[in-house]
Specification:
By secondary structure, this protein is an alpha+beta fold. The protein has one domain: NADH Oxidase (3-Layer(aba) Sandwich), CATH 3.40.109. Helices cover 40% and strands 16% of the residues. The protein is built from eight helices and six strands, in the order ααβαααβββαβαβα. The strands form two sheets. Strands 1-2-6-5 form a four-stranded antiparallel β-sheet. A hairpin with a 5-residue loop joins strand 3 (133-135) and strand 4. Helix 2 runs antiparallel to helix 6 (147-165).
């Protein structure tokens, strides 16, 4: 039997052309200042700020509205330590054995290596999981659709929300990441996709001098 389709009125606020451009330009300038940070202060952000940003991530669109994500907010120093040890073990394998030469060459300007002290120093880690399948009210397995795409969009929402709130972030993706299921006691139907490091940058924080692609190189008009 097909479920009855229910609808509600759309809440949509029309803005003047001037206001639309101002908001679009202002947000673009805000996000243009976003940088990946690897040196964090120990200062703790207000818990409600992190909560609101996570709620924003949960508003992302998803395949069939299955919302196939789980966000594990980690602030316990012992758990952060365990995550760091697990990540660094995988990173040593990557840098010493698995990474091809061209990949290592591409990473050289960023100055990255197998040591990840920020996984302990930053006040918050948000481990993002994608749920390959879920369960209905009766406990029956249900398939989720477009999981990588849906989780990727939600992660983008979360990064933008954290930056908009005044926090710095870093996306960290050790591979493989199954050690995170064990540490954070997540079920087998969930696959970790990224560790999002969040907090305030250290006072002496510096970032690599990089350039971004010019819009004309990645935007087409027809």
């Amino acid at each position: 039997m097909t479920a009855e389709r229910q609808t509600v009125p759309l809440e949509f606020y029309r803005r003047s052309a001037t206001e639309m451009l101002d908001r679009a330009s202002g947000f673009r300038q805000l996000m243009d200042r976003r940088r990946s940070v690897r040196s964090f202060s120990s200062q703790q952000p207000a818990p409600e700020v992190l909560t609101q940003c996570l709620h924003t991530a949960g508003t992302a669109p998803s395949g069939a509205n299955r919302q196939p994500w789980h966000f594990a907010l980690v602030q316990d120093p012992k758990v952060k330590r365990e995550i760091r040890l697990g990540a660094e073990a995988e990173e040593r394998e990557f840098y010493q054995r698995r990474a091809p030469a061209d990949w290592l060459q591409a990473l050289e300007p960023l100055g990255t290596d197998a040591d990840k002290p920020y996984l302990e120093e930053a006040p918050a880690l948000i481990v993002i999981f994608g749920q390959k399948y879920g369960f209905d009210a009766a406990g029956e397995k249900i398939k989720n659709y477009y999981v990588p795409e849906s989780v990727g969009i939600a992660t983008g929402f979360l990064i933008a929300a954290l930056h908009n709130a005044g926090l710095a972030t870093l996306t960290h993706t050790p591979s493989p990441m199954r050690f995170l299921n064990r540490i954070l006691e997540r079920p087998d139907n969930e696959k970790p996709t990224v560790i999002l490091v969040a907090g305030f940058p250290a006072e002496d924080c510096e970032v690599p001098a990089i350039s971004r692609k010019l819009p004309d190189s990645y935007i087409s008009h027809f």
